[in-house]
Amino acid sequence: MVGVMAPQEALRIAEGKGLDLIEIAPEAKPPTCKIMDFGKYKYEQKKKAQEARKNQTVIVVKEIQLRPRTEQHDLDVKLRAARRFLEDGSKAKFNMRFKGREMAHQELGMNMLLKVIELFKEIAIVEVPPKREGKQIFLQLAPEPVWLKAIQKEQKEKKSSQTQMTTEEAEQVAAAE
To answer: Of 1, 37, 67, 90, which cross-links 60 as Cys (Cβ 3.0–4.6 Å)?
Structure first.
C-alpha cells in the first residue's frame, strides 16, 4: 500500500523495481493501480485455469437402445454394458423405441424399464424416471455415489496389486539371470 501519488511517480517506482504498473479500477476516484509482474500474473492465472479444468469431472451419458421385443439374453448383454458404464462413472440412458403395432402395447416397454430400475436399484439412482416422448420411452440412471466410490477403490487396489506382481516378477527374472 503506497497511497495516493502522481502517475509518473508510480510508474517510476514500478520501473525501479523492474515491475509493471497495472490499472485495477480506472473508474475509481482516484484510479487504483497495482505494481506487479504482469507476465507472472498472467502465467499464474493460466495455471489456475488449467488446474480447475483438470479437477473438473466430465459426466458422460451412454445410451442403450432397447425394443419391446428384446429377448432376455440380449437384455442381459445390454444390462452388463450399462453396469460397466455405471462403474466407469458415466450415466446410462435407456431408450425404448416403438414401431408400428408396438405402439399399442407401450406397457410392455414400460414394464421392461421398470424391471431395469429394479435390477439397478442398489447400484444406481433414477435420475429421470421413465418418460414417454412420442414413439420412445426414456430412462436415465446415474451411479450411486457410495457404490461408485467403493467400486473405484476396489479397482484401484486391484490395479496396484497387479503392478506389484509385475514388479516382483521382473525382480525374479532379473535374479534368475
So the answer is: 90
Q: What are the tens digits of pLDDT across the range 85-143?
A: 999 889 999 999 999 998 898 999 999 999 999 999 999 999 999 999 989 999 999 99
DSSP code per residue over the chain: ---S--HHHHHHHHHHHT-EEEEEETTSSSPEEEEE-HHHHHHHHHHHHHHHHHHPPPP-EEEEEE-TT--HHHHHHHHHHHHHHHHTT-EEEEEEE--GGGGGGHHHHHHHHHHHHHHTTTTEEEEEEEEEETTEEEEEEEE-HHHHHHHHHHHHHHHHHHHHHHHHHHHHHHHH-
Collect all residues with Cβ–Cβ distance below 8 Å to 9 and sequence separation of at least 6.
none
Question: How many CB atoms are closer than 10 A to CB 113?
Answer: 20
pTM check: above 0.90 = no
72 and 35 share one domain: no
Q: Of how many residues is the chain composed?
A: 177
Q: Tell me: do 98 and 129 sit in the same domain.
A: yes
Domain that holds residue 103: 61-148
> Is the same domain home to 88 and 11?
no
